[in-house]
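Hey, can you fold this one?
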Amino acid sequence: MSHNTFGHLFRVTTWGESHGPAIGCVIDGCPPGLPLTAAHIQFWLNRRAPGGSRFVTQRREPDEVKILSGVFEDDRTDGPLTTGTPISLLIENVDQRSKDYGDIRDLYRPGHADYAYDAKYGLRDYRGGGRSSARETAMRVAAGAVARRVLGDGVQIRAALVQIGDRAVDRTRWDWAECENNPFWCPDAETAKAWEAMLDQARHDGNSLGAIIEVEATGVPAGWGAPLYGKLDAEIAGALMSINAVKGVEIGAGFASATLTGVENADEMRAGENGQPAFLSNSAGGVLGGISTGQPVVARLAVKPTSSILTARRTVDRFGANADVSTKGRHDPCVGIRGAPVAEAMLACVLADAKLRHRGQTGR
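Sure. Predicted structure:
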């Protein structure tokens, strides 16, 4: 299998399967001299971990990360520092239930990558999807934690769920702090309560719901990214689109910009502080011509409904015969719920890479 690596100067390679003994990643290109401990990474992993509420998979994985290489500590350093060499991270899988998948070993689950993997490789790991499982995203979150160390405290990245099914948040009630008070990363407490009832009903019905996640980065200076084939927004879109179950990405106003006029869409400017322009709106999502403007970088991603559901669906088996399939096991009624920390991590990795590439080209 190829294409397990993303990034240019800040490069991340992930490995492992959902029901294998462990998952891991190797991060190459991290600058030396940055403080990095397992605790720096564990904080972000804990936000993604399964089993946190009845609305996510009940697989109980502690996701305890181990740093195997790339840091050094002695009497000259105040704690472990990155060395500039590859950082290798490992998380052991401790709560697999491979027997849950025995009934579907020969069946292609609709909406899953089962058939596509079989068509490409001639075999597939049916235990939780193997490499195609969202379990792999734990290592993206771990890599994102390292990327945040590269970015520094000046760049803040946060994500929120803004829609489940057909119910969107009320933006007049938006409160980022509320995201930490409910199991949905929802900035609107009233909508979060409505989502509880929706997801309880979906689970009762053996069904699932899709979601939309909004992720933003503030403190990104103007100038990151490159024109044409290295556009910052294109790389953000590609990174977010690579997350499991994501089927659409938009930057700034996104698809809604097609409904705006030129007068409405143009982000007007006035003289700001330190000779920098002050933008009066942000339809561009913080990127113009593929280069950051200094405004918040804003993206949204659409996550399809969880394909593993109890309701039987028509399919075929690997021998070509018609069949019906329902999926047992422990699954999210809305996989988008745990997608917010993953979206943050992917945006962090893209921005860390952009920072290093910008510094390499301009010296700043």
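Residues 233 and 295 are 13 Å apart (CA to CA). Let me know if you want another pass with a different chain boundary.
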